[in-house]
Amino acid sequence: MRVIKSVLQMQKISLKHLKDGDEIGLVPTMGALHKGHASLLSKSEKDDDVTIVSIFVNPIQFGPNEDYLKYPRSVKQDLEICRKNHVDYVFMPSVEDMFSQGHKTFAEVKVMQDILCGPFRPVHFRGVVTLVSKLFNISYADRAYFGMKDFQQLKIVERMAKDLNFRTKIVPCPTVRERSGLALSSRNTYLSDDEKNVSLNISKALKEVQQDFKTKNLNFIKKNILNKLKKIPNSKIDYAEVVSFNDLSIADKNTKKVVFAVAVWIGKTRLIDNIVMTRRGEK
Ligand code: PAF
Asked: Which residues are the active-site residues?
């Protein structure tokens, strides 16, 4: 496993693999790796000849009052996880190298970036999309792996890759959960034991409303999720929404495949989670 810190060097190495006919897998991360990330690494190990993991806490996807400075950083442990998962290259550029002085170019995915988390994190998705498109240009990846916990991010990146004609295929990977149901997230490290206990109610609420999807209308379902979330102690709800799986538009009674998506603050930690539901007879 090699750790590469220079953008130019990473690009040269990727280009060489591309020319040699190797299939390249990219797992973009901000570090603080957990079992969710490990599942992406092992998928790439299976599917690709070469796996590149990027570890980069991307400043442009954090708003001014967000947690950029306190975002968990655990490089030693991350490298250990990468090594165990047979990663070939860990790409860890500096902010200065990624965003050379005078950087002025941004990519945006209109409409899809304006719902769910969008209004609460106004610069977030443009920061993610800009960074991910740079990573695609540096890695020449055949496949890039994204977890479904960040469902809006996944759909936005899929759209961007299509719209900008990247060669990279986006591979969605299932959310990995603790046995309790809590979706794994690097931000879970912010939670105290008590907060962690109450956070379980988020995935529990999503699971419970799953039943309603067969028989009840979407407004009822939304109200039901909100009522369940409101009962979580020490919490504040940013949103609970039912959107189309395909394009994140607000779902209606004709939408066959939907996503129940929620964002909830537990104390000072913002958690997101979702569940995908398909009407009977649909794929
Ligand atoms: O999901 C993340 O960790 C980040 O948003 C990503 C995709 C690595 C871009 O910085």
From this structure: 37
- From the alpha carbon of 147, which atom of ligand 1 is closest? 1
Best residue among 26, 27, 29, 41 to mutate for probing ligand 1's pocket (most ligand atoms within 8 Å of CB) is 29
> Does ligand 1 have an atom closer than 6 angstroms to the CB of 142?
no
Residue 244: name the closest of 261, 225, 228 by CA: 261
| pLDDT tens track for 74-103 | 999 999 999 999 999 999 999 999 999 899
- Kindly report, residue by residue over 203-237, the tens digit of the pLDDT: 999 999 888 888 888 999 999 999 999 999 999 99
Which residue lies with its CA nearest to atom 5 of ligand 1? 128
State the pLDDT at residue 9. 98
Q: Which residues contact 93 (CB under 8 A, 6 or more apart)?
A: 5, 6, 7, 10, 54, 56
